[in-house]
Design a protein that fits this description.
Elements: E1 4-9, E2 19-25, E3 28-33, H1 51-54, H2 56-60, E4 70-72, E5 81-83, H3 86-104, E6 109-111, H4 126-134, E7 140-142, H5 148-158, E8 175-179, H6 183-186, H7 193-204, E9 207-211, H8 217-222, E10 225-227, H9 234-247, H10 253-259, E11 260-261, H11 278-283, H12 294-301, H13 305-317, E12 321-325, H14 335-348, E13 383-385, H15 389-394, H16 401-404, E14 418-422, H17 434-442, E15 449-454, E16 466-469, E17 478-481, E18 488-494, H18 507-517, H19 521-525, H20 530-544, H21 552-558, E19 560-564, H22 574-578, E20 592-593, H23 597-605, E21 640-643, H24 659-664, E22 668-671, H25 673-676, E23 686-691, E24 694-702, E25 710-712, E26 753-758
Parallel strand pairs: 6-14, 7-13, 8-9, 8-12, 9-10, 11-20, 14-15, 15-16, 21-25, 22-24
Antiparallel strand pairs: 1-2, 2-3, 4-5, 4-16, 17-18, 18-19, 21-26, 22-25, 23-24, 23-26
Helix pairs in contact: 3-18, 5-14, 9-12, 9-13, 9-14, 12-13
The structure holds ligand MGD (2 copies), iron/sulfur cluster and molybdenum atom.
Length: 760
């Protein structure tokens, strides 16, 4: 029997954010349960935690747990630390901040991307944002590691992002085509997308086709057909389908004429030379003079031409068709082109902005507009693409708007000298090319201080100069907002289940401690402490949902509030579809820009490395890291494409040390027997995957669930180098490149060429 049961949450960035119920006995959490609430007037369904949330106890009490503030005494990465007091830690941070601000200015300070705690409202990286705003600001970032390329693509094409319909809208669809969208693994919460997909599919009886190099859990669970294709080639498939649609009069010409720019010469801007319309490109009247026939697409994608023709007929002969992409296809070196090209299928067939159709974007989800901590204004306006932080340390003098997507200034004036990392393993594990990052961080004269706040001794924690133990969700009171659902929204009020372990502190208290040493505590805290801020935010939530009890202690006890979705099923771009003159898009022409003049201009002004290209049309762009194209990496040496799908064992690297989860879903290299056999690799063998950037060891999963020529090494495994620098942990970022995508300057972490051998 437990002494008490309290509500808590799983905070990680799978995006769902599930409630959990913690059974506490003698100050220890002895059991974790999921949402047990019954259907009532407020809640329509349970939000069930997945295996990771249910295994939280094992992670919080793991041997890697950090308990005391520490100062590094070995080299960065060695993991040698000495315990220090909180006061000493705050002194070191405050004096370095003062020194850096005096010498280089606030622009030399940066908070690295980190999503390990997006669930907390008060325990959130916003506290560092607020602290730094109070202290004169810091360098900003734009983009994310999740959606950099698709974000840019949708902005040029539709003038906005998040243009999809709800997944439940497939009740109205006659066909569903999902490109690299693995909801069954990336949206695992019981309150979320998977349930809606199952129910909608049952009701609509629409055929579901999954296009993915992997036979994913989504393909296995929901699809009627799996079409494997080579990574990075969706745009070629889209062009091949477009060819069939155009040649057989299956395009919706009325839609194209009224709503789009650049399909054919009738809607092309008059000053653009002939041969630059989409139709020209597809039929071979453009610059490259190649008709994009199904045979042409077959050679690139690996999908038989006959199947491409059939797919074109399937998509072109019925309506509505729900075509959506996940974010795997865009996390590539040509990801911006891919994301736009997939959208051409619903655009050509007039499936945009209607019930049962979709824009080609990822499915939308319902959200309540909850409040967040006000962080004040950052006096520094300069912003780097988040993926280029290593370049901003190593090579700041070559960091410009035109070659690196810098915003707010033409040229970076100071390098990053001070790094904040909160709930971030993107210092090493989640950033590309670990060996290169390691080398950059070795030089302590470059980035002079790294302050990292963590729950566990992560890969990145070993690189911290000052390593601070943060409270976990078990050890702090907070609020959390549920994400990625369609039918409901939820507020979770999380109670502190146990006292902070060791000397762990909340991020609010840590920032307040630094502010105190800098003489700015009041400006930072507004006179409130952590728990008072939680209550303050709760009362802000009440402004959105006045039915929440006024008495906060009552809310704490109840823990979970659910509301059925307000409003109708969401159809992206519906008002534009109804009346494009009254509700134009936010593109320069107000229309869907198949031809983008902005990109046309960028292609002439931006400085790109050889092999990169910016195209005004959603063309297939063969790029580095995709076989058939001679690039820097020698294809003869590295003939296999490697992706790293988001995996059910972990959320990125978080929970990577949970042995229960490791047993349930071990880290393996997915390899087809056609690739394994000639290399003498059998299921379960230890293999070495390598390229010019590094090498990693992992056990092989020989399986027909991945297409020949392609491997997948699920991303997020913990990097564990041996003395020679060979990773023993199966971490894919030993093999990924820091070369960014052309427009967004985003992370192309699914574009990799490698070789694999059996390890003796
Ligand atoms: N279990 C779990 N869930 C998660 C996360 C996690 O780490 N673990 N992470 C969360 C976060 S932060 C994010 S951003 C999302 C990520 O969500 P996504 O980016 O959608 O996930 P990925 O697994 O990277 O990619 C989805 C699918 O795309 C496929 N794919 C890769 N390249 C291509 C391609 O060129 N073409 C096509 N057609 N398919 C391709 C992959 O094989 C994979 O099956 O997931 C979230 N959910
Ligand atoms: N090769 C490859 N690399 C990728 C991707 C890919 O698809 N392929 N995906 C990219 C994407 S989409 C993303 S979003 C990033 C994610 O990269 P990160 O945002 O770095 O995510 P995690 O690896 O989960 O690391 C989060 C850290 O936060 C810690 N943490 C968890 N909860 C708390 C807490 O409450 N408090 C504190 N202080 N710490 C906490 C965890 O221990 C963990 O070390 O990775 C990117 N990297
Ligand atoms: S990892 Fe995501 S789906 Fe799983 S319990 Fe946590 S928040 Fe829910
Ligand atoms: Mo992400």
């Amino acid at each position: 029997m437990s002494d008490k049961i309290v509500w808590s949450t799983c905070n990680v960035n799978c995006g769902s954010r599930c409630p959990v119920r913690l059974h506490v006995k003698n100050g220890i959490v002895v059991r974790v349960e999921s949402d047990h609430t019954k259907e009532d007037a407020l809640g329509t369904q349970q939000i069930r935690a997945c295996l990771r949330g249910r295994g939280l106890r094992k992670w919080i009490y793991s041997p890697e747990r950090l308990l005391y503030p520490m100062k590094r005494i070995g080299k960065r990465g060695e993991g040698k630390f000495a315990r220090i007091s909180w006061s000493a830690a705050f002194d070191l941070i405050a004096s370095k901040l003062k020194y850096i601000i005096d010498k280089y200015g606030n622009e030399a300070i940066y908070r690295n991307y980190g999503t390990g705690n997006l669930g907390g409202v008060v325990s959130h990286y916003n506290q560092i944002e607020k602290l730094m705003n109070v202290l004169g600001g810091k360098l900003n970032y734009h983009n994310s590691y999740s959606t950099a390329q698709i974000f840019q693509a949708m902005t040029y094409l539709y003038g906005k992002t998040d243009t999809g319909n709800y997944i439940s809208d497939i009740v109205n669809s006659k066909l569903v085509v999902l490109f690299g969208n693995n909801a069954a693994e990336t949206r695992m919460s019981g309150g979320g997308i998977v349930r809606d997909l199952v129910l909608a599919k049952k009701q609509s009886k629409a055929k579901v086709i999954v296009i993915d190099p992997l036979y994913t859990d989504t393909a296995a669970g929901f699809a009627d057909e799996w079409i494997p294709l080579r990574p990075g080639t969706d745009a070629a498939l889209a062009a091949g389908i477009a060819h069939v649609l155009i040649m057989n009069d299956m395009v919706d010409i009325d839609f194209l004429n009224r709503y789009t720019l650049g399909y054919d010469k009738s809607t092309m801007p008059k000053d653009i030379p002939k041969g630059n319309s989409y139709k020209d490109y597809i039929l071979g009247f453009g610059e490259d003079t190649t008709p994009k026939t199904p045979e042409w697409a077959a050679a690139i994608t690996g999908i038989p031409a006959k199947r491409i023709v059939k797919l074109a007929y399937e998509i072109g002969s019925i309506k509505p068709v729900y075509i959506a992409q996940g974010w795997g296809p865009q996390r590539h070196a040509n990801g911006e082109q891919t994301a736009r090209a997939i959208c051409m299928l619903p655009i050509l067939t007039g499936n945009v902005g209607i019930k049962g159709g979709n824009s080609g974007d990822r499915e939308a989800s319902f959200g309540i507009d909850w409040p967040t901590i006000a962080v004040g204004e950052n006096p520094v306006k300069t912003s780097i693409p988040c993926f280029l932080w290593t370049k901003a340390i190593e090579n700041p003098t070559d960091f410009t708007a035109l070659n690196s997507g810098l915003q707010g200034k033409k040229k970076l004036e100071v390098p990053i000298k001070f790094l904040w990392c909160f709930a971030s393993n993107a210092l090493i594990n989640q950033h590309s090319d670990i060996n290169r990052t390691h080398a950059i961080l070795q030089d302590e004269s470059k980035c002079e201080m790294i302050v990292l706040i963590e729950n566990v001794m992560s890969t990145s924690a070993k690189y911290a100069d000052i390593l601070l133990p943060g409270t976990s969700s078990f050890e702090e009171r907070d609020l959390a907002y549920q994400g990625y659902a369609v039918e409901m929204g939820a507020l979770m009020i999380r109670e502190k289940a146990i006292e902070p372990m060791g000397e762990c502190r909340t991020i609010f208290d840590i920032c307040a401690g630094v502010a105190r040493k800098m003489g700015k505590e009041k400006d930072f805290s507004n006179g409130l402490d952590h728990d008072q801020w939680v209550e303050e935010m709760y009362h802000q939530c009440r402004k959105i949902k006045p039915q929440l009890p006024e008495d906060f202690s009552k809310a704490l006890e109840k823990g979970l509030y659910k509301w059925p979705r307000s409003g109708k099923s969401f159809v992206g771009l519906a008002s534009f579809r109804k009346n494009p003159e009254k509700y134009p898009l936010n593109t320069p022409s107000g229309k869907i820009e198949i031809f983008s003049r902005l990109l046309w201009q960028m292609a002439q002004t931006w400085q790109l490395p050889e092999g990169d290209s910016i195209r005004a049309l959603p063309e297939y762009h063969p790029t580095w890291g995709i076989p058939g194209i001679p690039g820097k990496t020698d294809e003869a040496l590295y003939p296999l494409q490697l992706v790293g799908h988001h995996f059910k064992q972990r959320t990125h690297s978080t929970y990577g040390n949970n042995e229960w989860l490791n047993e349930a879903s071990p880290q393996t290299l997915w390899i087809n027997s056609l690739d394994a056999k000639p290399r003498g690799i059998e299921h379960g063998d230890l293999v070495k995957v390598f390229n010019d950037m590094g090498a990693t060891l992992v056990r092989a999963k020989v399986t027909p669930r991945i297409m020949p020529g392609v491997l997948s090494l699920p991303q997020g495994a913990w990097y564990k180098p041996d003395k020679e620098g060979i990773d023993q942990g199966g971490c894919i970022n030993t093999l990924t490149s820091q070369r960014p995508s052309p427009i967004a300057k985003g992370n192309p972490q699914h574009t990799n060429l490698v070789q694999v051998v059996k390890e003796k």
